[in-house]
Amino acid sequence: MSKSKKPKQRTERTIWLPGEEAVLRKHKDTWLNLDSKRERDAFAAGTVTEEIRNLSPHLYSIVVVRSNKKAKDEWDRRCKAIKNWFNNHRGPDTLRRVFKFERKIPLCQVVGHCKRADVDKRAEKLFANMTKGSKASLSQYQKALSAVMDDLTDDDKDMYERSGQSGRKKGLPRRSKEELLVNMPNG
Predict the structure, then answer these.
(1) Does the global pTM surpass 0.85?
(2) Under a CB-based contact definition with an 8 Å cutoff, are residues 15 and 73 in contact?
(3) Per residue in 87-101, pLDDT tens?
């Protein structure tokens, strides 16, 4: 018979001294509005911990923490608890920033998609003796695309750049999705 393991119980629980939780609540909105994890950690470790240290200088002053190992351990635990408090009180998931991988869609890819007919015509003019779909014609496609891009005005380039940005945020337009489904090989 094997011994059943008891669930781990948390025996240490941070008990905030008077005024400490008020400092944490005061800085909560500022902490939430910081852009990166690095900034949030630096803010919690710098500004907030100094204010809490100043509330109880007899317990957490630098002199006391350096000279007393027990006070140093308590201060380290308190700093960790500050970080945990901010993470636990950041609000519901809907308010949190969602980290998404975003792929930048290059301008040449947008132009190649939107002006596909023009690129194909330019490729046929430049390389009339090549058969469509051969290795040689595929390798020369980039030259035809570059020629079409050189013919674009600055306004056209800006327009295609904006459509690439909106495509990154919203996904492919419905028409493009339908074209992909129609042209997809059966497999």
Answers:
(1) no
(2) no
(3) 888 776 544 555 555
